[in-house]
Amino acid sequence: MLGFWIIAAATALATVAILGRVLLFGGSSDESTDAHDVQVYRDQLRELDRDVARGVLNEDDAERARVETSRRLLDADRRAQAAAAPATAPRGLTFAVLAAACVLILGGGIGLYSIAGAPGTPDLPLATRIELAEAARAERATQAEIEAELPDWAGPPPGADAEYLAMVDKLRAAMEERPDEIEGQELLAQHEGALGNYRAAHAAMARVIALKGDDAASDDYTKYADLLVLAAGGRVSPEAEAALRAALERNPEDGIALYYLGLMYGQNDRPDLGFPIWRDLLEGSRPDAPWVGPIRTQIDQLAAMAGVDYTPPAMAAAGPIAGPSQEDMAAAADMTPEERLEMIRGMVDRLMDRLATEGGTAPEWAQLIGALAVIGDTERARMIWGEAQTVYADDPDALALIDGSAANAGLASPRALDAGSEPAQAAETDATVETVDEMLQRLATQGGAPVDWAALIVALAAEGDTERARVVWGEAQSAFAAHPDAVALIDQAATDAGLSDPVGFSAPRAGPAPVPSQAPEALPGPDADDIAAAAEMSAEDRTAMIEGMVAGLADALTTDGGPPEKWVMLLNSLGQLGDTDRAAEIWAAAQDYFADDEAGLARVRPVAEALGIAE
């Protein structure tokens, strides 16, 4: 301790000595410099005279140099005299100021340290500091104690959908009656969290884990920990830490659990443990992983606390969203209808699982919504839409992308599933292995999912029947013209199969498609014989065949009327054919037909506006 006071006193005295030198001799340095400049310029004038005498300079050049040097000499002399002026200050006043400064520095330093410092406290070795930090972490506030300090839930956010809130109320009541229903408790945790009621959400998630017992997965514990942290205002409580460690025991690479574990160490004076967790997680993650952004904004501070000079890696661009490969499409041609449906469902389920556990980009959420709608799972698509709106509530650009995908998929509004309800399932079909001709016949008469059309196109191209593959491609684009996600999947399959362009009526491959508010049905397509014959038709004959199909639908609607979906389908088809005049006539007929049905007309209007024919 004595050594500390000796060092402190020596430092204070050195400071006073420096200050005294400045006060007593402050002008001497500048004065000396300016005096030196004066001497230099005088020497230069004498040197000019010698150069003229030796004939090195003529008189004119020497005179110009003398004028400039003399000017500099006068300036330097004025500065030297000004620098010497402060030295005339009274010496008594200077000593008085110096004495006051000494008292202020020495007395003020001792007084400040006695208040803010800890005299008599010995230095803490690293091991002791770590031991104290661990003791403080073990004794930190529990989840209940933290929540008791925070305000209670203020209720649903303003403007929340009344239908959605009513369904959440029903879900709560159902779980009070059936508390052992795992799926219902999972839904309750999800939707309580979406409403910001994190205490109720983590209570429901705790019930899920208790019901699952040893079958509880890493994802279950991660969701539980996430809700605990949110309920605690961002603090990682001992209960949340226990859940995180349970998640990492089951999956050591759980990114969300690792993020929160690093955060916990940072909050509890252990940056030496938190920093390497965040560093490894950041360097090993995709750039669009949900924890990358928060880590990047905080890791510099955590590294500094750990005593590490660290520069985060440059941000890499996110890669494209993965779709089915050419091999997947080729294999689908030999699958049964059930197997093909399972293939596309498996792709959708994998994307859904990844978004639920790791998060993702707005385009991936939009892709999932569109894919669910394409396979007929509209209820789950609407639920994902609602969840995506919650995730990107503060990102208008992302919301616009997601809402646009939902509208293109024909979804009217986002919603959540009721407890215990099951998503809509596609109808099962014959499970026998189809030949290409049988597949062609079935799609022409019964229709099918986009993956079925894609598989048929790939199969025809593989057999070398590229002309018929192009015709089927055009028909598939016609069938799904209002569904950009489906058209994109079909186009990708055709391109991978080596086809360049479709034949016949096809959706445009660039530019926005009309956005109906409900998913329209496909135009009634030609039968298998028509498709086969179309391959032999001229371009004019094929166009005439397609126009005949559209004209038949137009006659039926203008004569007998029909639901909004049929009118949307007809306007879409006329738009694809480029017949805007006829589309304007159909729009006028639709306005007359729905004169007393504002809701029906509202479902048709977006397509008319997209075609530029609405008033």
How does this structure look, described?
With 615 residues, the protein is mostly helical. It has four domains: 2-116, no CATH class; 143-148 and 161-306, Serine Threonine Protein Phosphatase 5, Tetratricopeptide repeat, CATH 1.25.40.10; 324-520, no CATH class; 537-615, Serine Threonine Protein Phosphatase 5, Tetratricopeptide repeat (Alpha Horseshoe). It has helices at 2-25, 28-54, 59-84, 91-116, 126-138, 143-149, 162-177, 182-194, 198-212, 218-231, 238-250, 255-267, 271-283, 292-306, 326-332, 337-358, 362-374, 378-391, 396-408, 436-446, 450-462, 466-479, 484-496, 528-534, 539-560, 564-577, 580-593, 598-611. It is extended.
Please provide a brief summary of the model.
The protein is 69% helix and 0% strand.
Task: Map the helices and strands.
Blueprint: H1 2-25, H2 28-54, H3 59-84, H4 91-116, H5 126-138, H6 143-149, H7 162-177, H8 182-194, H9 198-212, H10 218-231, H11 238-250, H12 255-267, H13 271-283, H14 292-306, H15 326-332, H16 337-358, H17 362-374, H18 378-391, H19 396-408, H20 436-446, H21 450-462, H22 466-479, H23 484-496, H24 528-534, H25 539-560, H26 564-577, H27 580-593, H28 598-611
